[in-house]
Amino acid sequence: MLDQFPIRPHLNSYTTSSPELYHRRLNMGADDGLITNAMNGLVPGLGIGLFVGSARAYLSGLSHAQAVAAGRVVANPPLRLITTTTAMFATVGAMYTATEPIVRSARDNVDDPWNGAVAGCAAGALVGVRNGSLATSCGACASFAAISAFIEVVPSGNDDTMKRRKAVYGMVDQ
Description:
Elements: H1 34-59, H2 64-69, H3 78-106, H4 113-131, H5 134-153, H6 159-169
Helix pairs in contact: 1-3, 3-4, 4-5
């Protein structure tokens, strides 16, 4: 009787035929892991953040050396502005790309715009956390979620994406 319900089913080979004994696990695919998914958003986020941070530093006016020479106190020296912007973009990208497959897996691999919306909300909430504002966090969560769901719903020219959307939403060709 006790052999039917082992305490550790992953250690017993005879339990592999009965999936109801296993706890539901997050399955993100054979070759995708959490770190891989996070890196898929982190690397482009680093590049975009470096570009945007450099543009912000350039457009902010005086360089740090010029401001110090003029006797002005600079709140965000250019290097600090570049690094904080780069880190924020990279973190938001990593959060989005790591959260989306987790949500999909937790929803029994349902692939619809809600996965992206939840991931967008999680990534957007980081913006408010960084600024220390609950209102910014809620607003960025809603904005990122809406944009992510909109991008998922609007048809693109990619045939694979269109086939997947037709299968998910039951659309028929006309």
